[in-house]
Amino acid sequence: MIETFAALFFAHALADFVLQTGWMAARKRQFGVLLFHTAIVLVTAQLATGHVASGSILLLASAHLAIDVAKAWLGRGGLAPFLWDQAAHLVTIGAVAWAVPGLWDAGLWAEMDGLPALMLLIGGAIFAIRAGGYAVGLLVTPLATDDVAPGLPKAGQIIGQLERAILYLLVLVGEPTAVGFLIAAKSILRFDSAKDSRTAEYVIVGTLASFAWALAVAYAVRALLAHLPPLEFLS
What we know:
This protein is mainly α. Helices cover 70% and strands 0% of the residues.
């Protein structure tokens, strides 16, 4: 079951946060775009599990389409719809893994014992870094005002990606105490911004949200990895 979930989670992270472009995300109300994205979801799930034809994967892709339609037409944008959308996708993936636990064992890659762990690691990294960027951006964008001091173009986005990547890696290699040093280092570097209360509060909210997201994903991945055959470099 965990192997199936790992493969489907990897496929979902790849389809939603790597292969889905900004152009596609902005046009989710166009049914043709939704169908194209659903086709990507289907193909990535097929490749990840090693099943060219599977009713359960087709059902999963159909559920993905239904969730995206609901978000596109009922959601108003913002963080809450994004979280509900991702939660619904993960619940659907979990339901398929629970209902068809042998999906991975019947696939083409079943003999590759370490592959599910690798997929889970990569999927988790994408979810921590890329999905976390979307979530944090949706949280802090409404807080940005003209009073918040601007920085370099996209610098904040790159910093957030790097800090989430470092946090994710630290937890997975068993060095969570080093997170404190990362927080201290960022606090020192951001010391000057504390002179402006609006900018300081904006930075604090974004930083804490970014850290919390990365830590939550990292610990969830680490818990699931305990139930999978280990990769050699993690054993």
